[in-house]
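Example record

One chain of 138 residues, shown exactly as stored in the release files.
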Amino acid sequence: MQFIAHKHRQAPSVIIVSLIDVLLVVLIFLMVTTTFKQQPAVKLALPESKQEKIGASDHSLEVTISKEGILSLKGNAVTKDILEKRLEEAVLANPDTTLAIRADKDAPWGRVVNVMDAAKAANIKVASAFIRSTGEAR
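Predicted structure tokens for this chain:
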């Protein structure tokens, strides 16, 4: 005698489309939140050049930045304002003037950027930039 009637049950089905939608939302959430993660400061290892001068000519200027951040143009110490004036005067005298920047490896990077900005404001092409690995820039 059978007291319990056996019913044929279907196996439970999983709706895959809904799961894919949920996974896409989670993936988008993770992608958006990881882009706002703060990255620690990166240590830079500046490249070294084995060549002293590249393309030096009669109408090229050389700015030297010492370890302390002191600017010098043609061997004379100058301030940022005087440097900007001298660069503008050089361009007026010869529009093909180029600039070579030589900096000590421990020189403040902001000073290098200041010199590049002054050159760009005076419409001077920066021909080369050297970072010396030992001692002061010559």
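Notes: The chain is about 35% helix and 20% strand.
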